Amino acid sequence: AQVCLIRVMVVFALILARQLTMQMMQNPQILAALQERLDGLVGSPSGYMESLPKVVKRRVNALKNLQVKCAHIEAKFYEEVHELERKYAALYQPLFDKRSEIVRAAYEPTDEECEWKPDEEEELTEEMKEKAKVEEEKKDEEKEDPKGIPEFWLTVFKNVDLLSEMLQEHDEPILKHLQDIKVKFSDAGQPMSFTLEFHFEPNDFFTNTVLTKTYKMRSEPDESDPFSFDGPEIMGCTGCTIEWNKGKNITLKTIKKKQKHKGRGTVRTVTKTVPNDSFFNFFSPPEAADFEIGHFIRERIVPRAVLYFTGEAIEDDDDDYDEEGEEADDEVSRLLFVCFYQRYSPACL
Ligand SMILES: *[C@@H]1O[C@H](CO)[C@@H](O)[C@H](O)[C@H]1NC(C)=O
Ligand SMILES: *[C@@H]1O[C@H](CO)[C@@H](O)[C@H](O)[C@H]1NC(C)=O
């Protein structure tokens, strides 16, 4: 928790520094003065080191070697954190399995399991209760006997900005068939990684029942730059091949293009297939870009899906955003938000 707190403080410091920088950038005088000072400073830290007596320099090297050893011990610490996560993942899993059964109507929860005392704040007046009841009855009449919790994961996706940004209209009919998202950790002794598994019910779009995305992590100091080590980092990711049914590949679109013959000047129309925007491009990743998304799904969405479904988790998250969100501010708040909830993996900085 202390490490986490320090990271949050670092992020705050970075935000402050950034805001300050932006203010200063707008003031040419400050900028010029700053440049002057910077020019004066160039080389001075190393100059100081060089000015030290040889025997002292030698000892500083010893301290650096100790620092490298610290980094290796820290790596061991994070390996154990990973082990602990694996251990606890196994404890959560039966509950997530039950959640999935309820969502996809494989299990009907008992009355006792469905009892839920609302918050006092949520307590409704008699009149509102009556109104809600009438409306609910009306809805029940319209949709006869819905199975499980319809569109559970699709609703989660729509409720979370980070995910809804990737969502296209033509993805929605497919995501209605999404029944579960699972996180699988690499086995002990294997290179550190985690896999997001998207479980689908049989559907018209593709024949896969599970789509996967694996994030490889590294929790070792880099030989060439050991001091930059700050916990496990996501190093890369691999998606999977989606076996689209004929004509259902929504990650492709065909466009008609007019081509003019250079010599004769005649015009012909050709059809070309080009990539189309889709959430499902997530599984054929253009690398790097979606580490944040993978981490977010693992750390937030999967453990607390119901609260994203109801929107409760989103209200909490909104507290982390600035009210008057300029675009730059938004970006920083999101970074802060992501870092804040990362138990480890400070790669986001
Ligand atoms: C390509 O994307 C557009 C807009 O996002 C969508 O309307 C269209 O249906 C997609 N094409 C295919 C073939 O799915
Ligand atoms: C679907 O489209 C992607 C490009 O977005 C392509 O790489 C893939 O091979 C296509 N799959 C099928 C089964 O047509």
Automatic annotation (TrEMBL):
Superkingdom: Eukaryota
Residue numbers spanned by region Disordered: 113-145
GO CC term (a single one): nucleus
Alphabetized UniProt keyword annotations: Nucleus, Signal
Gene Ontology biological process terms in this record: nucleosome assembly
Signal peptide per UniProt: 1-17
Family assignment from sequence similarity: Belongs to the nucleosome assembly protein (NAP) family.
This protein's name: Nucleosome assembly protein 1-like 1
Organism: Sinocyclocheilus grahami (Dianchi golden-line fish)
Chain's gene name: nap1l1
